[in-house]
Amino acid sequence: MTTAWVRSLLQWFNESQREMPWRSDPSPYHTWISEIMLQQTQVVTVIPYFQRFIQSFPSVESLAKADQDDVLKHWQGLGYYSRARNIHKTAQVLVESYQAVMPSDFEELQRLPGIGFYTAAAISSIAFEKPVPVVDGNVLRVFTRFWGIYDDIRHNQVKTMLFHKLESYIKEAKPSDFNQAIMECGALVCQPQSPLCTQCPLQIDCFAYVHHKQKELPVKSPAKKVPTVDVVVGVIMNDNCLLITKRPDHKMLGGLWELPGGKIEKHESPEQALYRELREELGIDSEVGSQVCMVRHAYSHFKIKLYAYSCKITAGTPQPLSAVDVKWVNVDDLNEYAFPKATHKVWADLKKYNLNNLV
Asked: For the whole model, what pTM was predicted?
């Protein structure tokens, strides 16, 4: 016999679910790609990226054969680029070790690059109908309110507790519908600030609704203060070509191209830091000219203030000492390379300049 709230939730989902391209074809490949893209990213943002990605890489085999630069270029703008690198690695593992077939087992999925506890649960339940609950931010919010759980949701034991608590209920339903219904309810109805309780299929049995505790739940401890890091980069031109460098895969934003430079140390001016960074990174001496722009960008755990200066090489030939690669690229061809969002902000500011007249 199906529990009343499960029955109500599934009926609501059947009537209210949003159309999404991966829902119309919940194959293991589509489910995997969509779930990775949806990490830290809203559905409305993901849909066009997903459609372009699947059009270019329609199968595991085509993704495995692709050049990493091409994969990163398709990911450009989504952020968290380690996701794209891991997708590429996993596709290669699947071709080499699994005959290009995604495994269905929850534990085995977690052994693949970039597939953790939550994503493995989503793939195994949505694509393979395995009775494995998913516990993301939406699920945490829905059920801490529903069951009146006052534990701090930043603590992993809350996720573990809800996972085990939901295991018995998911067996009462089609797993793919059960998990997607809860996440959809959290996204559309049980919202963080202004939950639409009168529209919620769970309201009758909801602790927070009955006791007017919606604003108190979930309990979430304050986030740590986000530091700001000062960074400087050089705009180095040669004829109509710009010098760019490629970041190592193991570093943040790995595999992306950028302007050469780095972090400004406490005792340095931006000009001193850029001179030092260009020697360490490329083995060149430089004359640092004027500042051409300053942009701000926020990542998940820190913010940056990025200063761009015009430069010219006074000695040496650029070598990839700490970068993976270094290239002179015609400014008309820059759109063929994948750059971080902060660098795109620099491009936007530089449009007012004739790059060849910067030095």
From this structure: 0.88
Position 71, amino acid: V
Instruction: Single out the residue in 202, 222, 242 at which a domain terminates.
Output: 222
**35 is an active site residue:** yes
Q: Which residues contact 240 (CB under 8 A, 6 or more apart)?
A: 330, 331, 332, 355, 356
15 in a domain, yes or no?
no
For residues 274 and 206, what is the distance between their CA atoms, to the nearest angstrom? 57
* The residue type at 116: G
Among residues 99, 119, 95, the alpha carbon closest in space to that of 109 is found at 119
pLDDT at 358: 52
- The Cα 162–Cα 177 span in angstroms is 18
- Number of alpha carbons in the 13 Å side-chain half-sphere of residue 145: 32
pLDDT single digits (tens) 170-180: 999 999 999 99
Low-confidence ranges of the chain (pLDDT < 70): 353-359
Query: Of 35, 258, 271, 277, which is the active-site residue?
Result: 35
